[in-house]
Every structure is written in C-alpha cells, then in structure tokens.
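User: I'm curious what two different proteins look like when written out as structure tokens. Can you demonstrate?

Assistant: Sure. I'll show them one after the other, since each token string lines up with its own sequence. Here's the first protein:
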Amino acid sequence: MIDYEGLPAPRNYYDTIGTIITPETWQALHGPGCRDHRVPEHTPKLIAERASTIFAAKTGSAKEEEAARLSAGAWIWYARDDADEAAAAATAAAMTSRERAAFVSARELATEWNGGELYGPNSKAHSVDRHRNPPVLVIADLGASSMREEAIALIELLGDRRRHKRSTLFASTFTGKSIARALETAGSNSEQVRKLIDLISAGVREGRQS
C-alpha cells in the first residue's frame, strides 16, 4: 500500500492517470529516509547482525553524510583490532548507500583467482568479474588470507573499480605497512605489493576529499 501523503501530487491525480510506481521510483520520490536499508549481498550472518546494530545507532545526518561519500565513489579503510569488528563497521557504512552493495573477503578473491585458468572465458582475470560492478563493495579481511594470490587478485579488481569510480570499503586488522609485510610473508612479490598499496592509498586519499 502506497502512502500518498509523501508524493508530490494528490492521490486523485494518480488515480486518474492510473500511474504504476515502481519501488525504486517510490523511494526516490519519498526520499532517502524511507529507503529499505539492506545488508550487502553475501554478507556472513554474524557480520550482518553486528552491522545492523551499528547502523541502527547511527544518526540520520551521519547516514546521509556516509551515503553522499559512497555515491561519489569513495574508498574507505576500516582498521580494527578485531577482524569481525572491522568488517561490521564497513558493512554498516555500506548499508547507508542508496545503491546495490555486496560483500566479499580477500580470501574469497584469492581463492577465485587461484581457481582461474590462464586464458579464455574462465581466466584468472575474469575470476573477479562478479565483484567489478556493484556500486558499493565491502572487501573484508585484507592481508589475512595467507595466500600469495591475494595481491594480484586485488590489483586486477581494484584497478577496474577505481577507473569507474565505484565505492570500495576495506576492512582489516592491518594498516599500510603491516599489510605489506603480511602480503609479502604470504608469498606475494614486493613489486605487486607496492603496486597494490599505492593503488589503495590513492583511492583512500581521494575518498577523504569526497
């Protein structure tokens, strides 16, 4: 049932022309405050529950500010001592967005890359394709996969997301220097690690300006 009170014309106007309003149009007309804030796709249940609690505690103005940054394609790094706490904080921020959001862990990305072929439609570069397009993406547990493929998979994915100005939220127990050590310990070569850190750092700096 539609609450005609929030629409820009009286109810009899819509009754006369028989207009059908889609849920997306209804949300746009009624305003962001009435959006059904959804947990990002593929978020683990525990993280989703924690994120929902964090989201509920945010003020309306804080939600609007975060939504505006995400709409501008901001990259934001959430570092916490606890990996689940970091993931929940990033996920709660993603919930403020008016656009589709998804969740993936760095280990998932590395595993998908590792399972790809060298060439063809199932190549390693295509293994991260499903994570390229969500307007908002949470990447959790950066540096914690203990897989050498993590760095190259992230470079492939993040290079594309930055070119298209798609918002990316990173969750980790590491900061810049410590994540570099973790990735190199896992077997990533130092050149790839430097390229990844430079890529993320540039995106996060741009995000602070949005």
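Here's a second, unrelated protein for contrast:
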Amino acid sequence: MDTGTGTDRWGLLPGVISAIVVLSVYVVSFDFPGHYGGLYLDMATALLDHGPGYVRSIDGYTVDGVPFAYPPVGLVLLAGGLWLQVDVATLYWVLPSVFYLLSVPALYKLVTEITGSTRVATLASVLILTSPEVYRPLVVATGVTRGPGFVFSLVGILIGIRLFEAGNPRQIVLGGVLFGLTVMSHPVYATFYSISYLLLWAVYSRSIRGFALGSGVVGVGLVVALPWLGTVVSNHGVEIFLRTSRVRGGIGPDLVGFAISYFYNPNVPVIALSQGVGILGLMWLAVRRRLFLVLWFLSIGVLVGNPRFLHVITGISAAWFIVNGLVPSLERHADLTEWLRRLPLQSGERVDRLVPVLVVTLVATYSVLGGVGFLVAENNVEKISNDDRTAMEWVGENTPVGATVLVVGDGAEWLPWFTNRTVLVTPMGSEWKGPSAFRRQSELRSQLLQCTGVACVESVTEQLTTTPDYVYVQEDHRSVAESLQNSSKYSVVHRRGGIFVFEVHAE
C-alpha cells in the first residue's frame, strides 16, 4: 500500500494545473461571466451607498423585490471592487477564480489529513476540482459567495480533525473564526461545516470534553457572525432563516430524488469519476473498516442532499481506492508486468513506477477532459453575451423608470443591474421569501425557457399579478421572437443581433 506521507512539493501542481485548465476554458467559452451575478452587484452597491443594516430589500427582482439577508463576505469583496472602480466583468472573472485556486491547497491538506497520503491528496484534488458538480458553482459569478464558503469550510474541517483527534483547545479559536466566516459566506456551506463537525466529534472523540470543544467552536463562530445575524434578525426576524432553510434542503430530503440527482445529470457529457469510482471506493473502505468517509457521505446525503458536497467526499474515496487499491492490484498482475518489462526501459525499477504513473495519468486526464466537456456543452451554464449587455443598456436608457420586463432566456437575473428596471420572473433571491415563492418563480422561469411562441409567453403573463411593459427575448429563443413579431400586441422597439426587445400594447 502506498502511503506517500513524505514531503511532496510537487503534490499541489496537478490540482493547480487542472484548475487553471478549467478556468481557461471557462473564460474562452463565455463573453461575460456565467450564471447569476446581478443581484449580488445590487446588494454590494446598497452596502456602498447606505452601509450595512439600512437596506431591508433590493428592488427590481420581481415586483416585490427580495429581502436583503444575504451573507456579507462575498458582497463586501464585490463592494470593495466597485469602490475601486474595477470593471464588473473583471470582478466576476477574478474573485471566483481566486477562491477556486485557493481550494486546491485546502483540499490537498484536508485529504492528506484524512488519508495519510500526499499521493491520494494529489489525485483527489484533480478529481474533485474537475467534477462539474463541484466547480460549476465556484467558477461562475455565484462563486463570489460560494468560493469563500468552500475554502473556509474545507480548512475548518481540517482544523476540526486536529481538534477532536488531539483535543487541543488552542484550535477552538481558529475553527470558530472559520465557522463564523463560513456562516457569513453561504448558508449551505455553513450547514456542510456544522454536520461535518458533528460527525468528527462522533468519530474522533465521543466524549464530553470533545463536545465542549465543538461547542466552543460554534460559540466563537456565532460571535464572529453576530453583527450580521443581529442585523438580519432585527430587519426580518429569525423566521427568515427558517424559510430559506426549507428551500435549500433541510433535514431528510427525498432520498430517491437525491440518488437520481447524484448519479444522473443529462447536461454532463461524461460521468465524473467521483461518482461511480467514488462509490466503489466507499465500499472498498467499508470492507477495510475505514468508515469516516462512508459515514460522512451518508450523513451529508441524508441531512443536506447536495451533490456538490457528495462529490467532494467520493472524490477522496475514488482517489484512495485508485492509489491504494487499484494500482497495487495492477502491479501484481503478471501479464501486465511482463508486457511492461518488454518496453525499452532502463531498469526493472522503472517498471514499478510506470504502473501507478500510467493509471493516475489516465484517470486525471479523463477527469479533466470530462470536466472541460461540460463547460463547452450548450446550455450548461446560464449566460449572457456582449450583445445582451448592450441591449440591456438600451433598455435602461430608453424605457420609462419603473417599467417592468419579462425576460425569455437566461439573462433575467442580470437585467435589473444593467437597466435599473424590474424583471417580473427570476427565482434569484426569492428563496428568502420561502419555499412557495421560490417554487413559483422557478416554475415560471422553467415555463419561459421552454416557450416556442407567443401563446406560451402569454400563458406565463396570465399567471403574473403585473402585466409586463416589455418582453426581452434572448438570442437562443428566436422562435419566440418570430412569433411575437407576428402578433399585433407586440412591437419591436430594439434589436441587437439575435436579441429582441418588444413593447407590449394594451388590447
């Protein structure tokens, strides 16, 4: 069995290279940072203009706006960039990328601590950071909030292992500060952090002293997060956290649905190795009575049910199985060894090194190509183009203040930022209003994305409490634009490439 416990200064390099490849393909493939980012910019602007605690809601995202209750770490970083007059696109290219790259050493150290092997840590970093479920929310615009949460939670769990194993109270402050920062970064990552700590106590301590140490971490974390928590509670009441927790998962989600979402994603062109091989690795570890990863997978799956965290865990188990299970088995295979010895190598010792190098290289290459393939496939990441930005700026300059807009396409969440107008359908931010509001907005958005003509668009508008003044149709929905042009109710007031802006006339 390979331990690889020695110092390996090159151990981080494959993970860093893989992350750079993913980031490079992402930047080349998109005109503008993908996924949702407009709401964060409006919140960051509110912080700059009014300071924390003085803004209760953000207008423009549905007619009622959305509560301003988002954790502040990413918003503060954005506000700092806006204050320095950094271009919006640059902010969203750079900030998520920085935290995505910082997750490489965080993962490497954590996996080394769990497995005792730097070689496992090296391969795990590649498998995890090229898994679409993991990197997708980190590299896009939403990575400005999720990225810090991911890095803080990984380092915090590493500190937790050392805390409960050694029982060293000096780790309480660092673990608590990291917990507080995670709480103030993103609520889902704070849940991941909390459940992981409970498991660490159960596996490594199971004592009153250990429980006291863990409670100390929670206490310090709450003190760190108290200014933000107090502000949100004073503005919206404690029930706002209960509402959003029901949207984001909660205890005991649909296990059948969780299993389907974990193993099947129709938008991913290849299966990530952290899925199938990771499950095989968990079974391999269970047979050997190494149960921490198995219990971690089950607890996160049952209590959180978010595939991105499960891919972190199975990425570790896959790498552990490949390095310490599969490779030794192949090295013992007589036919393979004999074939390798026929190659023009200088010594027999080179043969022993060639098997793990070949296996790990093939595995890492497959993982990187699979991850990159997801990025370049169509419709996998919500996006807007440079033409969208220009068209939205036109809307902001040429429509009445207070105008409402229905967007057919992925750009709905960006429109309020670029136009200072109200978008009628967007789920972004509605999770803070509760499950019913979030579900309604998500369903309306899904209906719009599937529209092919005017009848479908009007079916959506009939479900709204406010009739839109304008309909904005993105380039990927040309059939909708063509259908609206044939209706007397809609007239084209602006066109930019394949993007149409229609004014809605009263019948």
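A detail about the second structure: Confidence is low (pLDDT under 50) at residues 250-254.
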